[in-house]
Design brief:
Layout (H helix, E strand, L loop, with lengths): L4 E9 L2 E9 L1 E4 L9 E7 L9 E9 L2 E6 L3 E3 L7 E9 L4 E4 L4 E3 L4 E10 L4 E10 L11 E11 L2 E12 L13 E8 L7 H8 L3 E6 L2 E8 L2 H15 L7 H4 L1
Parallel strand pairs: 1-5, 4-6, 5-8, 6-9, 7-10, 8-11, 9-12, 10-12, 11-13
Antiparallel strand pairs: 1-2, 3-4, 12-15, 13-14, 15-17, 16-17
Length: about 260
């Protein structure tokens, strides 16, 4: 069967784009931004969704500049007829950089198989914000998940030293215990690495309320959120991101 393949590489600095390369179904577009706002890269999968055997790789670098990387739409992972869909993000924040990895939600359908990885290398004074959100089917369409394979792997290094590692694995039916998903239809992980993440701790706890938990330690802030559906999740993520981004620079595509 025909498989989707794609890879794209974007490197930006204070002087502008230094490298821009696209292969296959992976495309990047750079919309015009207001003066002083972070540059924005919109990542596009022209295949319109992924299934078993499909592969996408994004390589994003920022040096002495602020860059937001987001996606054109929610990524859809459809039922697999065999094998996993693989999505890899390789990120680098160089000296003086602020890199914001903010893809829109990934929607997992029944029978989906997804292996996703996020690797980031940060310079000593770089700031980094990463978000990954998952929606389990589409509640409005009456969909339910009875069979799923999902592995999400994060590895973040500063000056070559591992400072954050996280793995989420879900196999078979969704875990519905109070300590796991309970009745949630959508979840998200948000990680901030900066000079003063503790200053955001109380405001984010107020935003998420009983739908999330937030901790801060050693220059990192981590939030886990679970809500009944993707709409409720977006209602929490938008104000949280507006607080964490420079001058509330939420990508226009997020608020449309």
């Amino acid at each position: 069967m025909q498989r989707t393949q794609g890879a794209a590489h974007l490197t930006c600095s204070a002087a502008g784009v230094r490298r821009w390369r696209e292969e296959g179904a992976a495309k990047i577009r750079l919309p015009t931004r207001p003066p002083g706002a972070p540059a924005e890269a919109i990542l596009i999968n022209t295949a319109g969704g992924l299934t078993g055997g499909d592969r996408l790789r994004w390589t994003i670098e920022a040096n002495d500049s602020a860059l937001i990387a987001t996606t054109q739409a929610a990524e859809k992972i459809y039922r697999s007829a065999g094998g996993e869909a693989v999505v890899a993000a390789e990120l680098k924040a160089g000296p003086g950089a602020r890199l914001f990895w903010l893809p829109q939600e990934t929607i997992l359908f029944d029978g989906a198989r997804l292996a996703r990885s996020l690797h980031a290398d940060l310079d000593g004074n770089a700031a980094f914000l990463a978000l990954e959100a998952i929606v389990f089917g589409r509640e409005a369409m009456g969909e339910s998940i009875s069979d799923l394979s999902f592995h999400d792997r994060w590895r973040i290094r500063r000056d070559g030293r591992l400072i954050f590692a996280d793995d989420i694995r879900i196999g078979g039916p969704l875990p519905r215990t109070p300590a796991t998903l309970a009745d949630a239809g959508a979840i998200a992980t948000l990680l901030l690495i900066s000079a003063d993440p503790e200053s955001h701790l109380a405001p984010l706890r107020d935003i998420f309320g009983g739908d999330g938990a937030v901790s801060a330690w050693d220059g990192k802030l981590l939030a886990r959120i679970r809500t009944k559906d993707g709409f409720a999740l977006r209602k929490l993520l938008n104000p949280a991101l507006q607080r964490l981004l420079p001058e509330g620079a939420l990508p226009a595509i997020w608020s449309s």
